[in-house]
TrEMBL record:
InterPro entries to which the protein is assigned, alphabetical: HTH_MarR-typ (IPR000835), WH-like_DNA-bd_sf (IPR036388), WH_DNA-bd_sf (IPR036390)
Pfam families: MarR
Name used for this protein in its record: MarR family transcriptional regulator
Source species taxonomy: Bacteria, Bacillati, Bacillota, Clostridia, Eubacteriales
UniProt keyword terms in alphabetical order: DNA-binding, Transcription, Transcription regulation
One Gene Ontology MF term: DNA-binding transcription factor activity
Organism: Pusillibacter faecalis
Superkingdom, natural source: Bacteria
Entries under PROSITE patterns matching the protein: HTH_MARR_2
Domain HTH marR-type: 1-130
The UniProt record lists the keyword Transcription regulation: yes
Length: 144
């Protein structure tokens, strides 16, 4: 039997590819727009770390988003190598659409779940994510 998490992720990726593709976006673009919507502005490197994606992939996505007028990158006053990224007004409009697509996916995923079950799942997933992010940052050397 196929791994359920892998199966879920494949269907999820395809859903976002299809839905965001009609908007001229790739799934990573949607994640970036959502994260910038939450944070306001971030350094490019912080953004890559927060969404746990390779810096090069984030840079390519930001170039696409900048070309579409959805984000703006500005060189930091403190360090010329750092770029601060934020949504443009067009990007904030797109954020509402991206959030709607994500809400629709959650409605599909959580169909038949009670609010308590949803909350419990979210709590478990948060703990799991915290664990793997600590591992990725090297904070947990003994792996257990």
């Amino acid at each position: 039997m196929p791994n359920r998490i892998e199966m879920f992720r494949r269907v999820e990726r395809q859903y976002f590819r299809d839905r965001l593709g009609t908007l001229g976006l790739q799934p990573l673009d949607g994640l970036i727009i959502r994260q910038l919507g939450r944070e306001g502005h971030l350094k490019q490197e912080e953004l890559a770390c927060k969404i746990a994606v390779d810096k090069g992939a984030v840079a390519r996505s930001l170039a696409r988003l900048e070309e579409q007028g959805l984000v703006q990158r500005q060189v930091s006053d403190q360090c010329r190598r750092e770029k601060r990224v934020s949504l443009t007004s067009q990007g904030r409009e797109m954020l509402a659409v991206v959030q709607q697509v994500m809400r629709e996916w959650n409605d599909i995923s959580y169909r038949g779940f009670s609010q308590e079950e949803r909350a419990l799942y979210e709590a478990f997933l948060t703990r799991i994510t915290d664990n793997v992010m600590q591992f990725r940052r090297g904070e947990e050397r003994d792996h257990g």
